[in-house]
Amino acid sequence: MTRPRFSFSIAATDGKARTGTIAMRRGDIRTPAFMPVGTAATVKAMRPAEVRAAGADIILGNTYHLMLRPGAERVARLGGLHGFMGWDRPILTDSGGYQVMSLSALTKMSEDGVAFASHIDGSKHMLTPERSMEIQRLLGSDIVMAFDECTRNGVTHDEAARSMERSMRWAKRSRDAFDAGVDHAAGAALFGIQQGSLDEGLRKASGQALVEIGFDGYAVGGLAVGEGQEAMFACLDYAPGQLPEDRPRYLMGVGKPDDIVGAVERGIDMFDCVLPTRSGRNGQAFTWTGPLNIRNARFAEDMGPLDPECGCPVCTGWSRAYLHHLVKAKEILGAMLMTQHNIHFYQSLMQHLRDAIAEKRLSAFAQAFRTRYGKGRQAD
Amino acid sequence: MTRPRFSFSIAATDGKARTGTIAMRRGDIRTPAFMPVGTAATVKAMRPAEVRAAGADIILGNTYHLMLRPGAERVARLGGLHGFMGWDRPILTDSGGYQVMSLSALTKMSEDGVAFASHIDGSKHMLTPERSMEIQRLLGSDIVMAFDECTRNGVTHDEAARSMERSMRWAKRSRDAFDAGVDHAAGAALFGIQQGSLDEGLRKASGQALVEIGFDGYAVGGLAVGEGQEAMFACLDYAPGQLPEDRPRYLMGVGKPDDIVGAVERGIDMFDCVLPTRSGRNGQAFTWTGPLNIRNARFAEDMGPLDPECGCPVCTGWSRAYLHHLVKAKEILGAMLMTQHNIHFYQSLMQHLRDAIAEKRLSAFAQAFRTRYGKGRQAD
Fold it and tell me: Do A209 and A160 fall within a single domain?
């Protein structure tokens, strides 16, 4: 049986929340989904099999990082990102637009795109909608993101409008360039990205512009850029509803566990964030009673697991005392185990959310989660 | 069936080489054996299950590192080193004598022992034969090493003699202190350490002194300290023969693959070395055609495995090009995979040596190994 290029089916809804499945050539993606971030062709400190065992159906790769090292053409010569890194399920790649602005030096924006110097070796590069589509095609991405400008937090209405309008022109160029890569487009999907800062009217105009172009899925971009959870949720009270109900909605770069729960309640289906991996390397563990920092001296002789409610290989195999020791001693195994637990925690949270939606008890689950998680967070 | 405290049976010999089994409470150790080094309660960048899957029957823990962090008393309160790190098979601990001299600051040697300051936080400590035995007991070590002074390379005959004689007095104090820890001694083994630098007469006297005290096994100490392979092999031409034939002989801190092959031919049964783990983190891979440095640009688009003759999960899962990328990008997964391959390579080498001895073809195996491995080494 041939698997579909891209098909999204919603199995159940609960309020604005939905649970379902995205079916693609390389596998199914259960939604709401959390995508671990595999920046440089690796989910940091994890083997692909460990990422999969944690429950991930899809991972994210970064166009900006991969175009600089090892290079998109090189990845293509080596057979594509999947074979290169040993992950045979779907990969979503971002467009490079966000990171070129946050990481590179000497950027110069124009209507054509962004010229910049590599943060690794200073080499000069140019990202345009067309080049971004080409890179994502060379990588062999399953879900390609349109090239956009991530509008900064705190800009004026006029700046937000001009930025959004440029992103919409780039969305059209992305669509055209993606479709021109016929062989790749036959097996991959393209997502558009809604911008418009925190302005409901601009968000609506952006959503309409994207729908007019037509995409397989739609991302809410430009959030989690410093506006705070309250402002983000206020925007999510209307933004997902401005995007087609029968298409997956992806909230880029989000987020903390309580961000995810609130966004799922508001109709978001997909997430990515470096938090579980980056925090893990820094000694922070996510638990059902809030985050904890394993470096804290109170864990030095704590023989309990990181999270007593977690069944992951880390929580069943080692104590907080051991993880405290590893992280304090800067042992690589500390980063490995903390990351593994955190990815398990995030995937477990998504499974709980999917189950709660399917059983129409999301509100009760979310309320109970916030109460316990928030209390733990304050106590830490 | 109760497992023995310590029993060494030689299944076959080939020239001076032997293959057999050490049976202990926590498991069998196939000899010749290579013990991966788990310095700070972790074989760096590997989970215990991965170390075991590579073929290791026993690992080594470092008394010096563990006494400073997390501390021997703390490990004891947490139930011992095995449970702490999740390795349920035998652990050999060194005595701390070597590393206190090479790593710590402000050391002061006396007949009693060594006073020193921690390289981590400057705290003051004292290691004596009695304290070393106590620490190894607190850790729950299966094979305890006598506390000795590792004689430096290049000393005069008189210095070597005085150092060796002190080590022999410390060996007796170690034996007495080990035996006084009755509960631990009932399940663990104690090894003595031969010193005497590169002097055959001193080595002989040291061996006799140790045998007079009586140990479960005997280490050849004070080699691989800068004397070079030729001088080391010259010493190994007589040193193992000065130790009891019916007891395991352990060459401490060795070594490169060709060192191990030559030492096995000279009657050594056990080895430990940081080389496979440390080299792995630095981008060096061991292969049957010699070591290679994966950072080399010629591997950037090499789709072959690290070692075409290796069946380890790394060689069957990823290309040289991918490992090159990971190591260049300083990704943790690079250290994980390079280390995993190297530990597999070392364990595979030991299995080949055991098989060759059992089939009385060690000389041919060793000659073929040296030819291929040495050629590759020169080419790199």
Answer: yes
List, as ranges, residues 66-95 from B with C-beta within 8 Å of A: 69-70, 74, 77-79, 84-86
Distance of residue A75 Cα from the nearest chain B Cα, in angstroms: 9
Report CA Rg, chain A.
20
Whole-number Å distance between alpha carbons of A73 and A311: 41
- Indicate the angle between helix axes B362-379 and B257-265, nearest 10 degrees: 160
In sequence order, the 6+-apart residues with CB closer than 8 A to the CB of B325 are: A40, A41, A69, A70, A84, B300, B331
A1 assigned to some structural domain: no
Lowest mean pLDDT among A287-291, B107-111, B162-166: B107-111
Average pLDDT, chain B: 96
Encode B62-99 in three state secondary structure.
Answer: CHHHHHHCCCHHHHHHCCCHHHHHCCCCCEEECCCHHH
Same domain? For B232 and B333 the reply is no
Same domain, B262 and B295: no
In a domain, B1, yes or no: no
- pLDDT band for B377, please (50, 70, 90 cuts): low
Please determine, for residue B380, whether its predicted confidence score (pLDDT) is greater than 60: no
Q: How far apart are CA A281 and CA A333, in angstroms?
A: 10
Q: Is residue A265 part of a domain?
A: yes
The catalytic position among B94, B142, B199, B307 is B94
- In CATH, what number is assigned to the domain containing residue A174? 3.20.20.105
Same domain, B192 and B284: no
> Rounded to an integer, what distance in angstroms lies between the CA atom of residue B260 and that of residue B238?
16
Q: Which of B272, B304, B327 is the last residue of a domain?
A: B272
Residues 164-203 of A with CB under 8 A from B: none
Residue B203 shares a structural domain with residue B171: yes
Domain limit, last residue, from A256, A272, A288? A272
Residues B164 and B301 in one domain: no
CB contact under 8 A, A300 and B74: yes
Helix (H, G, I), strand (E, B) or coil at B283: coil
Would B100 be classed as within a structural domain?
Answer: yes
List the single residue in A44, A69, A328 with the smallest CB-CB distance to B325: A69
Which H/E stretch holds residue B352?
helix B332-358
Number of structural domains found in chain B: 2
Residue of chain B nearest A65, judged by CA positions: B329
Q: pLDDT per residue over A229-242, tens digit each?
A: 999 999 999 999 99
The yes-or-no answer on residue A272 being catalytic is: yes
Establish whether B96 is an annotated binding residue: yes
- Domain range enclosing A335: 280-379
- Do A150 and A242 lie in one domain? The reply is yes
Residues of chain A contacting residue B281, judged by C-beta atoms under 8 Å apart: 332
Q: DSSP E strands: which ranges in A118-244?
A: 124-127, 143-145, 189-194, 217-220
Q: Which of A84, A87, A172, A100 minimizes the C-alpha distance to A133? A: A172
User: Which DSSP category does A211 fall into?
Assistant: H
Which of B81, B333, B336 is most worth mutating to test chain A (most A CB atoms within 10 A of its CB)?
A: B333
B119 CB burial (10 A radius; 0-12, 13-18, 19+):
middle
Angle at B365 between CA B359 and CA B367, to 5 degrees: 145
Query: Residue B220 and residue B239: Cα distance in Å, rounded?
Result: 7
* pTM passes above 0.95: yes
- Could you give the ipTM of this predicted complex? 0.97
Strands B189-194, B17-24: pairing kind: unpaired
| A40 in contact with B, Cβ within 8 Å | yes
Q: Answer yes or no: do A252 and A346 share one domain.
A: no
pLDDT tens digits for range B151-204: 999 999 999 999 999 999 999 999 999 999 999 999 999 999 999 999 999 999
